[in-house]
């Protein structure tokens, strides 16, 4: 089975949040990056499928040069090769909305004719939660989202989909198909030393975004339909009373509130 | 003529609460634009649930009906909704941000060469749409450019459902042209993983634990506090994914939605998926080492500090006043 996994490099979860001077994103100085969490689970599912049924795992990632580090990490974990859809800087891809980026990704993978395309459920940074589903429509493939488990069944797949409130369902679909993977159903592997060594020799095909757009003008970001105007720190929905002092003092103050104001003790 | 078209979702044999909230968002948007609101539900025209539609009165209720829509599939819903949109020609299409909508609405928007503005928490003049970035640590304001139809999904709890108004609405059946070969997935019956033995929704006090607890071996720390408070123990998703607590104790969009008298969030940063499951709590207390954690946006009381110091101190203090 030939499997493509779309992965995204995102700021670390505990990255410090300072709004940049353009008011459109955070200041990336001193920010550490990592593989988006649900994408890491998508990669793990792909590697497990390959181990069970054979085939090839190809990762694709759109991002500036720094994303190369996350691509190497995926190769070190066992992906066979990679496509890096490289933006020239931190802002080039910001001119595209989710559909625009998905079009670029689709253009960079369609010649691969993969049996399965996996993405994470949503990114930890923009949180749009759409790339996989849009890719399915652009590639003309069926899809299923919020997937926890993939089994090969006959000529197709049987997948476990998460519903709300603790419910689940199975879905059967033929390949080729696109699945978006939910985090948490399996244990993520670590790269081995051997894997890290091997990754250095694996193929990473770099496609510059500008070159891809030059080859197909319909990919141009002339009119994204959805435009980000500005970012702000959130308003507080409730006014939080912070209780300070030593742990014992803060605890005593809280117990007093719970006793006399919230009245739950 | 332009309009706002709101899709309502039927779940557990009723029109879901988040659908009413999406409807309120749709009415707010329509009022600012001076255009009418139409509603759409996948249901037979005689479905009695259509009579439960309340709140501000819409112009038309479309009952989208076809045997191929009885079980949800992304292909079936995408095609049927696309046909209704071509028929009704709305300027805005508004969805509740449910798992089902997340599954097909991006596909539907793509069919119109558009991008869904997902998980909207506010609508301001413009119209400008607010949604959260970086797990709730940042708000972003978006606008839609061009004159084509714009797709939105509305986050749970972001809008208050409108009070009922008198008036009658015409139900108009909409029969899409569907063919079984267009539906490429075969959905199975929904099921629950295991019998529920804990009912978090009836507990007056919940002590809820998140990633900050670091290791399974540290759980007794919060269990002791829960016992001291006579509270049920709950958790955010990563704790249940790791198998440290059973899934039935999970609060959030994929777990339970709770509204206890007291919700004590320990080491929980407060990603949207968690907040939608607990922000209706009467009192929220957050203990977290990161003062910028989004959980503090919904907390009434907060302690910024190391939970490994604060929680034992709190357990001791609770025991002291209770004895």
UniProtKB/TrEMBL annotation, chain A:
Annotated PROSITE patterns:
ETF_BETA
**Keywords, ordered alphabetically:** Electron transport, Transport
The lineage's top-level taxon is Bacteria
Q: Enumerate the SUPFAM superfamilies for this protein.
A: Adenine nucleotide alpha hydrolases-like
Keyword Transport (UniProt): yes
What Pfam families does this protein's entry cite? ETF (PF01012)
Q: What is this protein called?
A: Electron transfer flavoprotein subunit beta
Instruction: Give the source lineage, highest ranks first.
Output: Bacteria, Pseudomonadati, Acidobacteriota, Terriglobia, Terriglobales
From TrEMBL, chain B:
Q: Which domain of life is it from?
A: Bacteria
Where do the Electron transfer flavoprotein alpha/beta-subunit N-terminal domain residues begin and end?
4-195
Into which family does the record put it?
Belongs to the ETF alpha-subunit/FixB family.
On whether Electron transport is a keyword of this UniProt record, the answer is: yes
The record's listing under Pfam families reads: ETF (PF01012), ETF_alpha (PF00766)
Q: Give the originating organism.
A: Acidicapsa dinghuensis
- Matching SUPFAM superfamilies: Adenine nucleotide alpha hydrolases-like, DHS-like NAD/FAD-binding domain
Keywords noted in UniProt? Electron transport, FAD, Flavoprotein, Transport
Name it: Electron transfer flavoprotein subunit alpha/FixB family protein
